[in-house]
Amino acid sequence: MPKNKIKLTPDDIDVSPVLDVLEEVAEYARECDDWVTVKREIMQRLNPKMRRLFSTRDPITKEQSMNDFEVLLSDKFYEHTGTRLILRTREERREIYGSI
C-alpha cells in the first residue's frame, strides 16, 4: 500500500491532503496541546468528504474520542512540533477555556 494511504474502507483513501493541512496547522498551532482545538482547525480546512476520516462526538455525553487515524495525526503533529496533543474531557476544556 502506498505511503500516504490507509485502509479504512473498501477503497484506499489518499490522506495526503489531510497531512498537508496538518502541517499547515502545526506551523501556527505548535504550542497548542489540545486535540479538539487542533482537530477543529484541520477540519475547517478540509473538503467535507475527507471529514469522514474523523471520529464524532458521543451523541449522549458529547465527549470526544480518537480513532486510529486521529492517533496517527496526533503522532504526526508531535513529529512536526514536539508537542503532544491531549484529549481532554469536555469539563477539562471548560475549566481551561471557559464556556465551550
How is the topology of this model organized?
Layout: E1 5-7, E2 12-14, H1 16-28, H2 35-44, H3 68-81, H4 90-97
Antiparallel strand pairs: 1-2
Helix pairs in contact: 1-3
Strand order of the largest sheet: 1-2
Kindly name the structural category: mainly alpha
Level of helix content?
Answer: 40-55%
Listing every helix as H and every strand as E from the N terminus to the C terminus, the arrangement reads: EEHHHH
- Runs in which pLDDT lies below 50 for 5 or more consecutive residues are none
Largest pleated sheet? 2 strands, antiparallel
Strand content: 5-15%
**What is the radius of gyration?**
14 Å
| Overall strand count | 2
Gross morphology: globular
SS summary, helix count: 4
Mean of the pLDDT scores?
A: 88
Termini separation comes to 40 Å
In words, what does this structure look like?
This protein is mostly helical and 100 residues long. It has helices at 16-28, 35-44, 68-81, 90-97, and strands spanning 5-7, 12-14. Strand 1 and strand 2 form a beta hairpin.
Summarize the structure.
This protein has helices at 16-28, 35-44, 68-81, 90-97, and strands at 5-7, 12-14. By secondary structure, the chain is mainly alpha-helical.
Task: Please supply descriptive tags for the structure shown above.
100 residues, mainly alpha, two-stranded antiparallel sheet, 2 strands, 45% helix, 6% strand
